[in-house]
Amino acid sequence: MAITFDPYDYIIRLEARIIGIEPAVTRTLELPRDLNFAQLHEVLQAAFGWTDSHLHQFTLGGLIVGAPEVIEDENYGPRVLEATEIRLRDLSFPYGATPSLEITYDYDFGDNWKHLLILRPTQPVDGVKYPRCIEGKRGCPPEDVGGTGGYTQFLEAWLDPHHEDHKANRQWAGRKFEPEGFDLDATNKAIIRAMRAARGGYRFRSSRSS
């Protein structure tokens, strides 16, 4: 029996990939459609293992979404839309058998980590709590490693015991770093903690007001 798609009862399946790294570092998430973009930022940070130590923004077509008070420059650049005021349900998906949208998520304007996000509406599953991660590949690069180029050089030294920077890179990255590692259970626990701490918005605002 075919399942009829209800346009008013769906979740978002989001496939996220860090651009410029091969093999790819990916996460597949399932998200409630009432999630706002500040919460989406928190979910992405937790899912990949970033530490939310740098600025970020989403790009939806020609629109920039994020925290205006920290990234908007009144003398330069476009207006930044408030992330808590835009939700996934506000997105319009094109008509078709498999409608999808592509947006970008930039994290750390220095290292310039760009994430391609592909969003598709899909049916929710009874009894499942969202948001959640359902799949992932490879570990997240360390913070401040120097972007995709720096990460490539870092891995060369990290993997080669004869490299002159091998020991220093191992010490700097710490024992928990594993470039091929991904723990689904730990990732979902991190998402739950982030959502609780964010209180419906950004964690940095919640901690500042508490």
Helix content: 25-40%
First-residue to last-residue Cα separation = 52 Å
The total number of structural domains is 2
Q: Provide a count of the helices.
A: 6
Using only C-alpha atoms, the radius of gyration works out to: 18 Å
Run of helices and strands = EEHEEHEEEEHHHH
Regarding CATH, which class of the largest domain?
Answer: Alpha Beta
Please tell me what the overall shape is: globular
| CATH H level, superfamily name of the largest domain | MM3350-like
Strand order of the largest sheet: 5-4-3-6-7-1-2-8
Strand content: 15-25%
Give the second-level CATH assignment, the architecture of the largest domain: Roll
SS-derived structural category: alpha+beta
Low-confidence stretches: 1-5
How many extended strands?
A: 8
Main sheet makeup: 8 strands, mixed
CATH fold description of the largest domain: Structural Genomics Hypothetical 15.5 Kd Protein In mrcA-pckA Intergenic Region, Chain A
Give the averaged pLDDT, no decimals.
92
Structure description:
By secondary structure, the chain is an alpha+beta fold. The protein has two domains: 11-139 and 182-205, MM3350-like (Structural Genomics Hypothetical 15.5 Kd Protein In mrcA-pckA Intergenic Region, Chain A), CATH 3.10.290; 140-179, no CATH class. It is 28% helix and 24% strand. The protein has helices spanning 37-48, 68-71, 147-159, 166-173, 184-198, 203-209; strands at residues 11-18, 26-32, 56-60, 63-66, 80-82, 101-107, 113-122, 132-137. The chain has an eight-stranded mixed sheet with strand order 5-4-3-6-7-1-2-8, covered by helices on one side. 26% of the residues are buried.
